Amino acid sequence: MTDAPTPSPATADLPGWTHVYSGKVRDLYRPDGSADGGADRMLVVASDRVSAFDHVLAPGIPGKGVLLTTLSLWWFDQLAGADGGPAIANHLAASHTLTPGGDDLVSLVPDAVEGRAMIVRSLDMLPIECVVRGYLTGSGWKEYQSSRTVCGIALPGGLNDGDRLPEPIFTPAYKAPMGEHDENISFAQAEELVGAERAAQLRDLSLEIYRRAAATAEAAGLILADTKFEFGSDADGVLTLADEVLTSDSSRYWDAAAWASGTTPAERMASFDKQIVRDWLATHWDQQGTPPELPAEIVERTAAKYRELLEKLTA
């Protein structure tokens, strides 16, 4: 396990903002008094860092922060009603949009992090990671093989790795402190953490977002196999979508044509995320000690997949 990474020297000091926290991939800042005095605002910066197996790896993926931020902003726009569905509240500050205007808050984003930062509203974040699975794969497939369940939810027999589930399922996880594994929990445990009413809201909203996003992905020739969301409450108690959303880091996307025609799991589940990194690490590292440096070829292939996903979805 690793300690929380520190921001790179290029982004540690940003004019108008004070660094308060770094996760595996993102750095968080508050206004220091000169950033328009917005005490209820925060700056979320997506770095080029890449993580796998609870470790931050080296080197990073060039341009990753910009790609993730661009895709998140695009999805926030879709879920705000651009896809024809009802608007879902998100954490973006009111005038922070994908296409900045003359008085847009984007003008407060420091040049050093332009394109990979979002100005957001401060929220009371909920301690639950909201995972939705529409297909059987990953840790879910491993559990299914032994018990015919995924996160304790019973599923029909006869499913294979990569198969579509009869219905998308909500499988929450407890967001563990930095350096520890997130823990899959039951819906009953989620109710204990946030209350029965709020847990039901998280489940229903997560499933709604997944279904809408999966339909959008399908229209672009993609399968949204699974994804995870984070939510917080605003000052009025409104459940609000936060952090990144439906990116290559938080979701599994597959090529729909390859999934339909492939004869092996690898062919069916050709992904647009950091699975390339995970696969290489699994082959070249026993998860003991410091992970090896990623080869240039793996870095380049991963960056290409991130770019390809953005292009396919937003074309």
TrEMBL record:
UniProt keyword list: ATP-binding, Ligase, Nucleotide-binding, Purine biosynthesis
MF annotations from Gene Ontology: ATP binding; phosphoribosylaminoimidazolesuccinocarboxamide synthase activity
Annotated Gene3D superfamilies: ATP-grasp fold, B domain, Phosphorylase Kinase, domain 1
Pathway connected to this protein: Purine metabolism; IMP biosynthesis via de novo pathway; 5-amino-1-(5-phospho-D-ribosyl)imidazole-4-carboxamide from 5-amino-1-(5-phospho-D-ribosyl)imidazole-4-carboxylate: step 1/2
A cellular component term, taken from the record's GO annotations: cytoplasm
Domain annotation SAICAR synthetase/ADE2 N-terminal: ranges: 20-285
CDD domains: SAICAR_synt_Sc (cd01414)
EC top class named in words: ligase
EC number assigned by the record: 6.3.2.6
One of the Pfam families matching this protein, by short name: SAICAR_synt
The keyword Nucleotide-binding is assigned to this record: yes
Source species, domain of life: Bacteria
Substrates-to-products reaction catalysed: 5-amino-1-(5-phospho-D-ribosyl)imidazole-4-carboxylate + L-aspartate + ATP = (2S)-2-[5-amino-1-(5-phospho-beta-D-ribosyl)imidazole-4-carboxamido]succinate + ADP + phosphate + 2 H(+)
Positions in coiled-coil regions: none
GO-annotated biological processes: 'de novo' IMP biosynthetic process
Family, per entry: Belongs to the SAICAR synthetase family.
PANTHER family: PHOSPHORIBOSYLAMINOIMIDAZOLE-SUCCINOCARBOXAMIDE SYNTHASE
Full protein name: Phosphoribosylaminoimidazole-succinocarboxamide synthase
Organism expressing this protein natively: Microbacterium dextranolyticum
Taxonomy of the source species: Bacteria, Bacillati, Actinomycetota, Actinomycetes, Micrococcales
